[in-house]
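Before drawing any conclusions, I needed to go through one protein's amino acid sequence and its backbone structure tokens, quoted below without any editing.
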Amino acid sequence: LICQLGTDRYEYLDLVSGQQCKAFGLRREREETRAELLRQITENKEPVFLSDLAVSGRDLLCVGAAQGAELGEMLQMLLDWVHKNPEENRRDRLMQLAMQSTRLKG
């Protein structure tokens, strides 16, 4: 959700949600959990956006990705991967995954 909305909008919606809970006397467990997750992501400098990837579109073109939609799909695939495996946001690992993906398609 942070990736889709951006950090500022996410924080704003989280604030609004917290205020709604206060106003309606609802439990705030989810809001506290979301706030803690955002804090951890920010503190650990985990990759959230395409610009956070250790590779760029240029890097992927070097391993055979086609420009356009295929390049965008590959970048998104790598971003999805590092969302689940933030410790693997390393150029060597992402290039390896990109090459494997390119070979599978070709």
About this structure: The helical segments are 2-5, 7-24, 29-43, 57-62, 69-84, 91-105.
